[in-house]
Amino acid sequence: MSEQKPPQAPLGILMLDTRFPRIVGDVGNAQSYDHPVIFRTMQGIGSSDAVAAHPDRPRVLAALKANAEALAAEGAVGLSTSCGFLALYQDDLAAVSPVPVATSALLHIKSLGGRKAGVLTASARNLTPAHFRAVGAPEDTPVVGLPEDSSFAATFLRNGLTLDRDTVEREVVAAGRELVTKHPDIEVVVLECTNLPPYRKALERELGRPLLDVLDLLKGFYAGLSSRR
Questions:
Q1: Helix (H) or strand (E) holding 144
Q2: Which residue, among 27, 38, 37, 91, has the nearest Cα to 61 in the 3D structure?
Q3: DSSP secondary structure string for all residues of 170-183
Q4: Contact in structure between 192 and 179 (CB atoms under 8 Å)
Q5: At what angle do helices 165-182 and 200-207 cross, to 10 degrees?
Q6: For 154, phi and psi rounded to 5 degrees?
Q7: How far apart are CA 24 and CA 32, in angstroms?
Q8: 156 DSSP assignment
Q9: Which of 8, 122, 124, 163 has its CA 20 to 30 A from that of 54?
Q10: For the chain, which ranges sit under pLDDT 70?
Q11: Main-chain dihedrals φ then ψ at residue 201, nearest 5 degrees
């Protein structure tokens, strides 16, 4: 008889307190991963607390720390978050977390070896140089956001109960097209928002450039954690 392998330890995901649908491809859907994950909602910390140019940093970090400790106690061997804007807390959270942390797809940028990155974000108005500094990325990285009056924003920023997938996909593709039209020297497009990976294939067809998202980040992060164990 072959020896049975022990079960894989899970990656923990610190979730914002939201109610919107999370389809396959979204960071908050377990079917988006090829490794085990466990989720923990940070009660009272919603989209508006994270997607902000000037958030209440002590309050958000306190919630991140408490829930990181809880996930580690449940067996998580590493942690991520359900919002790319939480890149702002990468170093602060890593300093207090019992396990390694990879907060945001924005972490991809510093590993691109000089290739020019552009970012597609949930909110261009709120994504500041401080977010890029926090992950060692150039502060002048080109950014285009989804429109504030979009179906995307109604669902994901204003915490709607419904998701019009087809409309959101059209909005995301249009924003991606705007990004590469404004900045044709972009070589890699990074999806800041953890709700954007479901539209990745449509973006790749339209933009003709490599894309990187939070699921890519976490696949590599988890593989690194596994090799260390």
A1: strand 143-145
A2: 91
A3: HHHHHHHHHHHHH-
A4: no
A5: 40
A6: -60, -40
A7: 5
A8: I
A9: 163
A10: 1-6, 229
A11: -60, -40
The H or E element containing residue 211 is strand 211-212
Strand partners, 174: none
pLDDT digits (tens, 9 = 90+) for 121-136: 999 999 999 999 999 9
User: Minimal CA–CA distance to 82: which of 16, 156, 157?
Assistant: 16
What is the CB neighbour count within 10 angstroms for residue 25? 18
pTM for the complete prediction? 0.95
Give the long-range contacts of residues 205-212, CB within 8 A, separation 24 or more: 206/173, 206/176, 206/177, 207/176, 207/177, 207/180, 209/180, 212/105, 212/108, 212/188
Cβ pair 68, 12 in contact under 8 A: yes
Q: Which two tokens stand for residue 68?
A: 């990181």
